[in-house]
Design brief:
GO terms for molecular function: ATP binding; kinase activity; magnesium ion binding; ribose phosphate diphosphokinase activity. Belongs to the ribose-phosphate pyrophosphokinase family. The protein is α/β, with parallel strands linked by helices. It folds into 2 domains: 143 residues, Rossmann fold (3-Layer(aba) Sandwich), CATH 3.40.50.2020; 142 residues, Rossmann fold (3-Layer(aba) Sandwich), CATH 3.40.50.2020. It contains 10 helices and 14 strands. The strands form 3 sheets. A 7-stranded mixed sheet has the order 10-9-8-11-12-13-14, with helices on both faces. Strands 1-4-5-6-7 form a 5-stranded parallel sheet, sandwiched between helices. The chain has a two-stranded antiparallel sheet with strand order 2-3. Strand 12, helix 7 and strand 13 form a beta-alpha-beta unit. It starts with a strand and ends with a helix.
Length: 319
Amino acid sequence: MGDRIKILAGNSHRDLANEIAQDLNLQLGKAQVGKFSNGETSVMISESIRDMDVYIIQSTCNPNVNDNLMELLIMADAVRRASAYRITAVIPCFGYARQDKKDKSRAPITGKLVANLIECAGIDRVITMDLHASQIQGFFNIPVDNLYAEPQIIKYIRKCIPGEKVIVSPDAGGVKRAKSISDKMDSDLAIIHKERKKANEVSSMILVGDVKDKVALIVDDMADTCGTLASASDLLFAKGATKVYALVTHGVLSGDAIKKLNESSLTELIITNTIPHADKAASCPKIKTINIAHTLAEAIRRTHHGESISSLFADNSSK
């Protein structure tokens, strides 16, 4: 990789940052990120990064979304003031992505606010994975590379899940994602239409499509409280599915999600490691993990060398 690149990491997901650095045959840069006694974030870069291509790996994810965001912004400011040549924020899970529109009176568009903060901190490029809504890229005036977990998910399905399959979108908004996977897998597609009384609470579900005597694969970008997945699994089994798997990019798993998963009829929940979840996986044997460290590392390598990132997915999606 050469000596003009530096990988730094905050505290959001040190394990993933270490795996990415190892994949690139690099050591993580020397950066101390902590807190002062009054709770303010403290950052100190302990080596020269002048004129270097710097990549800051930091998911702005739970359980400490705001702390992780502030660490990213303050690290970027420290790196910019240390005369780095270019600063790229590698954000495996982009926090506040669900607040991407004004869906009711006097509501903020926090996703746009976060984009403004990232730009003002001096960051030149963002690499992220499976944004909740692709239009979030338009919130930025800097390049945004939105990577996809789809190739890794398809590889897992082909290797680990036997039987005749049907790809299921858990809502109308995820149809495009589900259709893309079903086309590549040459599988049928089904859609669950759900009506919500309020956020994170589904009042009714209707299945469009046939799942009888098939393995149902629910695909989504995020699993939060897992109420939708549990209800969808019950519905699919009631309609004749033999097994029900959920394949999700970001395992938020907030609130009593683990309890719901353990009590649900879901066969397995497969998530990537964009968010740390080792403690939750230990409490729920249904959780399986897809490691996306190599995908992020390869995106960093290609960005550093000025190579195409889109070809990364064109090459792997059919394998």
